[in-house]
Amino acid sequence: MALTKHSRITLNDGHKIPVVGLGTYAPQEFPKSMAAEAVKVALEFGYRHIDSALIYGNEVEVGQAIREKIADGTVKREDVFYTSKLWSTYHPQHLVRSCLEKSLKDLQLDYIDLYLIHNPIEFKPGDDLLPMDENGKLIYHNTDIRDTWKGMEDCKEAGLVKSIGVSNFNHKQLELILNMPGLRYKPVCNQVECHLYWNQSKLLEFCKSHNIVLEAYGVLGSTRDVNWYDPSAPILLEDPVLNTIAKKHGRTPAQVAMRHMLQRGIVVIAKSYKPGRIKQNLEVFEFELSEEEMKTLNGLNQNRRFVDTSK
Question: Keyword GTP-binding: yes or no (predicted)?
Fold first, then answer.
């Protein structure tokens, strides 16, 4: 089946996810209003998948933008696939719903389409989203991730969210959930850093074998946020092989990097606040990479992360 901007992948619970989404994360110095403008522009261009999270601190603005586009007739609520994420200070089973309800209140929406455990790593529960000790080190906690998943299942059964999944999980962490006694719902997806320099081929194979969709963020090399980014990393979009293939197709390196992921069966989250780039990123359906080009791009893998999770 040919890929188009209307293409959706059916998740293991029967719901369908658009294959390209707009990411809304930005470093703190960016005004939150920029997220709202980006979402409105994206919905006008034809995006139907918006990805955010409690920790991004912009769900009030993102929700307002979605509601404005519903009010002016650009979209209906059921057309928009909205993803949010459970933050790491809400992992105890009894706290999961409170985090989801905070997002719903900020968004002013009745339900979320996809809710993800943002990270398998847990921080000390409390009002401080990044709890630090006296030495400025993060304070960790140790709730069993399977209990966290039970809280996610509770939210699905309460009708607050349609689908549930995970983010930044490796295959062993996924297996903990998949093999847990009394499992009510499998994760529908795993959203991870994935790009030409870290193509996640083994994790993709594992997820496909369990009918779990792999969702990629950082496809274009990730936001170069000093809080998370490895400053020694090369700039992916300047890769000469990528640029040669892009030039051959008359496309941007970003478009080719995204198209490569889509042809591997991966859902792509692409972040930009620039209207021109947002539009370009949805033009990845206007060309196709050959098998040889796919093999060449697969060969660029370096097992290199851009997001430094140790910071």
Answer: no
